[in-house]
Amino acid sequence: MRLHKIAPEYEGRVRLVERAFPLEVYGSGPADRQLLEAEIWLAALQEPEAVFRPFGDEWPTTTLPAFEAAWCAAQQGEQVGRDFDLRIRRAFFAEGRNIGRREVMFDLAREAGLDMAHFARRFDDGTARAAVLAEGKLGREKFGVRGTPLPMLGDGTRLRHQMAYPTIRNGRVMGIGKLPCYGEECYQATRELFELALSHAAQQDAPG
Fold first, then answer.
1. Based on the structure, what is the number of domains in the chain?
2. Do the Cβ atoms of 143 and 153 come closer than 8 Å?
């Protein structure tokens, strides 16, 4: 959410490119309900503008359809894809919808006013699934990605994302460090990531 909010301020200077990394394929497995319910309050503290509500009765057994749908939307424009990615997250975290179901993704696409013929063709012919898996494989094999979120520069240089993570044992939060930022402070920290990208690009372009 922070990256999406700040990116327009740097339009034309820094390009934000988002890549899929499905944890169920390349990481620790599909979303764990017990784990997310144990730490969701921490996300709410750090993202006061985001809406979080109790999860619904139906839990997604896979998130691949969500990744595929986000990729399909992005083919209709970078900003379209970025907005739709947030729409999927809101459907899951604030509306309790099962983002692992194809029909839910298509409902969201219609609600967002996407070109449904274009969306359906890429979703159903395997193009989206192949692209998502290829992006995840690239992240793991070339850049050593193991978890998300993981902001990095184009050359793979990793950036420090200002977030607090809990220590969880047996599904219970055992400890949490000091929050690195809150509210507008977090947005400023995100601006600093974009400034680092600008500085890095300038150094790369410098003669000699």
1. 1
2. no
